[in-house]
Design a protein that fits this description.
Strand content: over 45%
Largest sheet: 9 strands, antiparallel
Strand order of the largest sheet: 6-5-4-3-2-1-9-8-7
Order of helices and strands: HEEEEEEEEE
Number of helices: 1
Shape: globular
Helix content: under 10%
């Protein structure tokens, strides 16, 4: 499952920038595994992952860090950076908005 956390070298996005670019949208990601993930406007995130299968959880913010809490897992928070116009990274995974 995609845990959008980690360190990255580019400038970190604010919570508002992440909301504007990610929330209500789906993305295709690559890193240690590949798949798609959607961040719904109601705070739910769903994923379909090549390794972990399908699942869901809750997203939120702690200051400017995006946090994800999957069922049975601890909450995981971290910064998001913009790599290019439509490409983002958390230092472990890189994704594009669909």
């Amino acid at each position: 499952m995609l845990l959008l956390t980690g360190t990255a070298a580019a400038a970190e996005m604010t919570a508002q920038e992440i909301m504007d670019t990610h929330i209500g949208k789906c993305m295709t990601y690559a890193g240690p595994t590949t798949g798609t993930q959607c961040y719904q406007t109601d705070g739910v995130t769903t994923y379909q992952d090549a390794t972990y299968g399908t699942g869901s959880g809750q997203w939120s913010f702690q200051e400017n860090e995006l946090c994800v809490k999957y069922t049975g897992e601890p909450i995981d928070c971290g910064p998001i950076t913009r790599v290019s116009e439509n490409t983002y990274s958390d230092g472990t995974y890189t994704w594009t908005i669909n």
